[in-house]
């Protein structure tokens, strides 16, 4: 019973040099997570020495994902009116980003065709976001925003 409680509370790395952390969900495996982030299984295992047996990960475990922001998906060109770019951070979703920028979810998805599955965005992905026209929060208040 003691080991179950330890596993369910999650193992967390002391440091994560890549800066990208991922919390394991039910049904995840190291292989599946590596595929999701487009990295090798070997790289994922190497970045997580706190996981003694990579075949046994549990919901709540926190993994370091060895990618840098530049490794995310980046749009070639943003559509008219979407002259800004936003770098996705941990915890973001397309819905939350659309709300933050005052645009409909459908419009944000349409402006970012380089994201094949809008339900799966990852830290380091770059999204086209609308320019500020005075109706919503100034971009200086929105983290990770860059004018194009």
UniProtKB/TrEMBL annotation:
Gene3D superfamilies referenced in this protein's UniProt entry, alphabetically: LysM domain
Domain LysM, first and last residues per copy: 20-65, 84-129
Pfam families in the record: LysM (PF01476)
GO MF annotation list: lytic endotransglycosylase activity
InterPro entries membership: LysM (IPR018392), LysM_dom_sf (IPR036779)
Cross-referenced SMART domains: LysM
PANTHER family (alphabetical): LYSM DOMAIN-CONTAINING GPI-ANCHORED PROTEIN 2, MEMBRANE-BOUND LYTIC MUREIN TRANSGLYCOSYLASE D
Protein name stated in the entry: LysM peptidoglycan-binding domain-containing protein
Species, as recorded: Alkalicella caledoniensis
């Amino acid at each position: 019973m003691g080991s179950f409680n330890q596993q369910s509370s999650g193992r967390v790395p002391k440091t994560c040099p890549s800066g990208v952390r991922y919390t394991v969900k039910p049904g995840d495996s190291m292989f599946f997570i590596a595929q999701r982030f487009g990295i090798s299984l070997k790289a994922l295992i190497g970045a997580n020495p706190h996981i003694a047996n990579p075949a046994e990960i549990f919901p709540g475990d926190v993994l370091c994902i060895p990618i840098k922001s530049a490794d995310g998906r980046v749009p070639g060109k943003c559509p008219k009116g979407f002259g800004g770019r936003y770098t996705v951070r941990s915890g973001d979703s397309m819905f939350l980003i659309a709300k933050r920028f005052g645009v409909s979810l459908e419009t944000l998805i349409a402006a970012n065709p380089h994201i094949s599955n809008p339900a799966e965005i990852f830290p380091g992905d770059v999204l086209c976001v609308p320019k500020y026209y005075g109706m919503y929060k100034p971009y200086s208040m929105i983290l990770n925003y860059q004018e194009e």
